[in-house]
């Protein structure tokens, strides 16, 4: 009886030892299963490599864990061996734990099953991140060429538009070549759009290999198309203005040189202060009222800037007015036989009666040495006349 009691004490101690070792091992397996099934979201090769490193470190602990499992299961085997040897009937219940050897075995098998599945998931993610990295590099390689190309073309077109070395026709030919080059370059934009679409489908939203995004490229491309179209239109208008008003290429070059000098921001526009300085440098005597009137002509929409086309239109009108007044004076000088005054008789002799009487009634008396009685001042008349009559 004492021997049986001693055996039961031994079995009880083994039950307690099993419980002490099974509980923490069971907790470890619960944590391991949770980690092995943990969902992950990564965005780079570096991040997935970090997970793989952690998984490899976990796998390195498995041999030690297996030793602990075998030691724990060995305690249970010892209990069974004692019971079988001495014919002791066990109740099958460990009074110190609800964990059974079967629980331990089942969970261990689950852990061993989950490890290769985790390996597979991580390797699949590595492949995905490597593919994403290829897409990033592919997009960046193109974007890092296209972005600067667009900027360079913008600067070159701007330079052509302000160049005074050649004629307007030469500017137009150069701009048309740029336009054709831009049209031909469109295929590169389309290819980049395709790569961008692949990146979006792969949920790639960052790219450390380039500072350009597709949105940046699109905006730059649209600005380039707008700039070349606007610049061509401006040069076409300048050609039409030149031909319609009879302005020489030299005059246009002078206008362009003046504009370029006062275009301090080098953006093809002058602000009001620069425009005022430009006019003053060209000999204009500007009060506030007069300058405000001129600004309504060159900037009717109150944009706050004066474009080169508006500047050309204004200077063309000014030049045309000066030429017309001078032409009227020159005509009267011929009628007056090169004198600085004209007589009533000369007007009536050289002009139709109605025009002669119109001039006689409006010309003031000429004051000067050795001039005959009734001499008229055609110079002041011509200046006052321009803009009031087509005469």
TrEMBL record:
Gene3D superfamilies: 1.20.58.60, EF-hand (1.10.238.10). Keywords: Actin-binding, Calcium, Coiled coil, Metal-binding, Repeat. Pfam families: EF-hand_7, EFhand_Ca_insen, Spectrin. One of its GO terms (cellular component) is actin cytoskeleton. Residues 250-285, 286-321 form the EF-hand domain. PROSITE patterns: EF_HAND_2. Residues 168-195 form a coiled coil. It comes from the Eukaryota. The keyword Repeat applies. InterPro entries: EF-hand-dom_pair, EF-hand_Ca_insen, EF_hand_dom, Spectrin/alpha-actinin, Spectrin_repeat. GO terms for molecular function: actin binding; calcium ion binding. This is Alpha-actinin-3-like. It comes from Stegastes partitus. The gene is LOC103376197.
């Amino acid at each position: 009886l004492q021997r049986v009691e001693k055996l039961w004490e031994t079995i009880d101690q083994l039950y307690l030892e099993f419980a002490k070792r099974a509980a923490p091992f069971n907790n470890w397996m619960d944590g391991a299963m949770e980690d092995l099934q943990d969902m992950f979201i990564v965005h780079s090769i570096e991040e997935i490599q970090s997970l793989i490193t952690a998984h490899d470190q976990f796998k390195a602990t498995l041999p030690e864990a297996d030793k602990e499992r075998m030691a724990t299961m060995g305690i249970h085997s010892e209990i069974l061996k004692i019971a079988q040897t001495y014919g002791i009937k066990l109740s099958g219940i460990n009074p110190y734990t609800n964990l059974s050897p079967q629980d331990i075995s089942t969970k261990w098998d689950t852990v061993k099953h989950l490890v290769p599945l985790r390996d597979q998931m991580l390797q699949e993610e590595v492949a995905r991140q490597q593919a994403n990295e290829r897409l990033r590099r592919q997009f960046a390689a193109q974007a890092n060429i296209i972005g600067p190309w667009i900027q360079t073309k913008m600067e070159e077109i701007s330079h052509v538009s302000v160049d005074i070395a050649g004629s307007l026709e030469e500017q137009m030919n150069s701009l048309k070549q740029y336009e054709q080059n831009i049209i031909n370059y469109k295929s590169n934009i389309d290819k980049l759009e395709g790569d961008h679409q692949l990146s979006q489908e792969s949920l790639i939203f960052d790219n450390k290999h380039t500072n350009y995004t597709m949105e940046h490229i699109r905006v730059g491309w649209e600005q380039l198309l707008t700039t070349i179209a606007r610049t061509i239109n401006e040069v076409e208008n300048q050609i039409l203005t030149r031909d319609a008003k009879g302005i020489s290429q030299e005059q246009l070059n002078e206008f362009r040189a003046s504009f370029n000098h006062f275009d301090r921001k080098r953006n093809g526009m002058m602000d009001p202060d620069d425009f005022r300085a430009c006019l003053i440098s060209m000999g204009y005597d500007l009060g506030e009222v007069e300058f405000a009137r001129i600004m309504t002509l060159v900037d009717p929409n109150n944009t706050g800037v004066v474009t080169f086309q508006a500047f050309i239109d204004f200077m063309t009108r000014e030049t045309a007015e000066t030429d017309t007044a001078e032409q009227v004076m020159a005509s009267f000088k011929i009628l007056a036989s090169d004198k600085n005054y004209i007589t009533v008789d000369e007007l009536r002799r050289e002009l139709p009666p109605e025009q002669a009487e119109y001039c006689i009634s409006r010309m003031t008396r000429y004051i000067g040495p050795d001039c005959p009685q009734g001499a008229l001042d055609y110079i002041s008349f011509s200046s006052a006349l321009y803009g009031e009559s087509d005469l």
